[in-house]
Each structure stands twice: as C-alpha cells, then as structure tokens.
Amino acid sequence: MPATACAAALRAALALTSALTLASCARPVTTELEFYPSPRPQAVFSPAVRFGNLLFVSGQIGTDSTGRVVQGGIQAEGRQALNNMQTTLERYGSSLDRVVKCTVFLADMKDFQEFNQIYATYFRARKPARSAVAVSGLAANAHVEVECIGVTS
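The chain above was modelled as a monomer; its predicted structure follows.
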C-alpha cells in the first residue's frame, strides 16, 4: 500500500475513533449500535449504522436505481453519489444539513476541482469537515465515492 494511502487510512481510522469516543461520552454507556439492513440482499455491509445520535453512512458511488454507474464522468457521478448520500441520510433520520464529516475518494486527483464545484452546491449552509484522498480504484470503476457521518434527531 502506498504511503499516502496508509496515511489516509490512518487519518480515517483516527477520525472514526475520535467520533466514537466523543459519541460515547455524550450518551449513556447503554447506547447500542443500530445496524440498518441493506436493501440489496447480496450487500456485505450496512448502508448506515447509528451510534447514539451519530449516523455513519457507508460510501456512496454514482449508481442509478439499477445499480449501474451513471454516464457522464465526474460531474454526473458526483451528483448521483451525493444524491444517493442525501437519500440514505434522510432514510435513516438525518440530512445533508446535519452532516459533520465527509470523506471523498477520487480515482483521479485531477477531478478534485471539478468535484468541489458539485460538492459545494450540496453543502451551502453548513460545510462539514472533509477529507479528499486519491485511490487506485473504486467499486464499479467509479470516479468518486463519498462517505459521511451525520447527526440524527
């Protein structure tokens, strides 16, 4: 694994550990995790997991309702990935306005500025903390994947 990927993975792990620690301090110890079932039976992950009032949303790529990556490159995929994120957040009791942290994975860092233009239209009022990292590949040969942590009611 390249050093930049290792550093990014370490930062992500530390951020998750910090968020879980803060969440456990903010809630009674009896708070339980709630794993939401995937609408796709073959999925090997939960679309979201709630811990206290935090909602950890799995990475979203720009797939349509058939599960295919939308055509049109980073612009179309970025919009669809963020639309998928918005749908998932709302399904489990949060919203884009309640996102506190996003991580963006780009298959090519050359798409950074173009993706930022799209991203900025989804987070107008509140800008969550964010990391963006280049990766050597994404599921379904996607150009972008976005994961986030949101707050529920």
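Helices lie at 3-26, 73-91, 112-122.
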